[in-house]
Amino acid sequence: FCDIKFDLAPITWSVLEPQFSPSKSIEILVSLPSHSLATSSSSNSASTFNAKYSPTSLHLLDSEGMHEQPLPKGLAQHLQPPYIFISFSPNYKSIAFQNEFGNICVTSLDTAKLLADFSVKTLTNLPGAIPQDICWCGNDAVAVRYDNYGLILVGPRGAYIKYEIGGMANNEGRFFLVQEMDGLKVISKQGGVEFVQRVSDSTEAIFKTGSLSPGATLYDAYTRYEMESPTAEGKIRNLKKEGLVSDAVDLCIDAAGFELGYKGGNAGGGQEVLLKAAAFGKTFLDGRSYSAEGYVEMCKMLRVLNGVRYNDKVGMGGLTIAQYKELGVIQLVERLVERRQHLLAFKIAKYLEDTLISDGNNNTTGSNSSSAAAGGKGGSAGGNNSNSNNNNNNNSGRNRRAKEEMKDGGREEGKESIKISDRVVVHWAMLKVLNKRESDEEVLRGILNKIKLSPGISVAEIAAVAFRNKRFALATKLLDY
Fold first, then answer.
1. So what's the pLDDT on residue 2?
2. Cross-strand bridge partners of residue 171
3. DSSP 46
4. Which one-letter DSSP state was computed for residue 470?
């Protein structure tokens, strides 16, 4: 790529992935200390040069070497260098910079346009606080972490909100930020893992005080209907008169997707009541003019999400619907298997198997992962892990080997498509074969008991794995099945 040597370590840097960079290659935005000496040797050029850089500008590192990055005229005036934090927004359209004095500026991706600037210390009246990190919360809010003070969220117009995380108000420790595509994870010893995200437009339209949106009217009508109030009919009549019933139903369905809990709190909301409000509104629509496909798909997605969120062994309680859509069902199943949750992965795959078809040569989405690798110990898919370090190391080694076996032991190209639920079982069986602590008879019995439930599974791949791992008797018995 490029060889850069500094006499002083860079203060901070941030990586721009190739799919988002203008050059379509990896770029690194670097902030250097005053008069740092850099020696660069580019992989695309035989030239080597020495240069002394000033901290008054940023530097871009790419395959051609290091270049000074032009900045908008107002940035240096509002934000005295050097910059101690650099953070790209999740959509990679903006960059946030912060200096040691707590001043923050936001520019466009090419740093040519200054979008916002503000001083967190001035806004929050925290003169003695030292900023520890900055991240984005969504694409339009910057989060600033202050140990022992809390989290400051600053919006595009300088409006801000302060969150006290766990015991931060009592100076009881540190916390950390993890930037997500649609929000921000806050991890602390006192509060565990919390998720902060912008309220969705549909949720705001329904629950905002005094809202007159179609979704708010339908939600109000449904709650009145549940209380057996005659005023519910009048609200539905008004929606039908204005032709807004379908819009109201769609708004309730969309808002249900953003709810992390099935049951709502004291302020209302929750997936259950929003979906019931949508179903209530659907009864006033003509089935020929309104398709319930969106309602059915949302129910399916929420059933899968709730199954993942409320399983303490999975560790994906904060999975949002936006992350789920970006990840895809097949990738979700793979991640569950890598977490050794084969039973849950199998149930999700079976539930949605109409959309979960992968080709046998492992080239389609989701079939080339190491989901095969994450097998369970014992005779049932989704079995519990051992807690010892030695067992964890052994499991990790078997995971890698099972992944390699899947690359080498896949079906021939052009063979029939197979269901991803069957792949989960096959991968579990492969890892079971690699578990040398069980006898051939125990392994054979466990594998055959599972294969009987999925008659379309071929044991040839599993037998090939057994043969390559010198379990010849087991391979023969599997082929005799």
1. 59
2. none
3. S
4. T
Nearest to 256 by CA among 243, 242, 268: 268
Residue given tokens 């599974």 in the structure block: 457
The identity of residue 64, as a single letter, is E
The full length of the chain comes to 481
- 82 preceded by a cis bond (ω within 30 of 0): yes
Residue 55's nearest CA partner among 29, 31, 28 is: 31
pLDDT at 377: 33
Mean pLDDT of the chain: 77
For residue 297, pLDDT beyond 90: yes
Rounded CA-CA distance 158/137 in Å is 14
**Helices assigned H by DSSP within 310-379:** 321-327, 329-338, 342-351
Hey, CA dihedral for 223, 226, 231, 234, is it positive or negative? positive
Contact at 8 Å (CB) between 182 and 188?
no
Question: What secondary structure letter does DSSP report for 412?
Answer: P
Cβ pair 184, 154 in contact under 8 A: no
Of residues 466, 451, 465, 460, the one with CA closest to residue 479 = 460
- Give Cα 178 to chain centroid, integer Å: 11
Q: If DSSP codes are grouped into helix, strand and coil, which group holds residue 467?
A: helix
pLDDT of residue 75: 65
Select from 19, 24, 62 the least CA-distant residue to 43: 62
The pairing of strands 36-42 and 418-419 is unpaired
Q: Give ∠ CA 319-322-327 in degrees, rounded to 5.
A: 75
Q: Which residues contact 234 (CB under 8 A, 6 or more apart)?
A: none
pTM above 0.85, yes or no: no
184/203 Cα distance (integer angstroms): 18
What is the rounded distance in angstroms from the CA atom of residue 101 to the CA atom of residue 85? 11
Please report, in angstroms and rounded to a whole number, the separation of the first and last CA atoms in the chain.
52
Smallest CA-to-CA distance from 277 within 335, 337, 226, 345 is with 226
Q: Give whole-number Cα distances, 235 to 224, 248, 269, in Å.
A: 10, 12, 19
Looking at residue 247, what is its pLDDT? 95
CB 324 within 8 A of CB 301: yes
Q: How far is CA 27 from the centre of its chain?
A: 23
Q: Quick check: 113 and 119 in contact, CB under 8 A? A: no
Instruction: At 353, list the tokens.
Output: 């198997």
CA 95, CA 142: separation in Å to the nearest integer? 10
Report the alpha-carbon distance of residue 481 to residue 478 in Å, rounded: 5
CA 47 to chain centre: 42
Least confident of 72-81, 125-134, 285-294, 441-450: 72-81
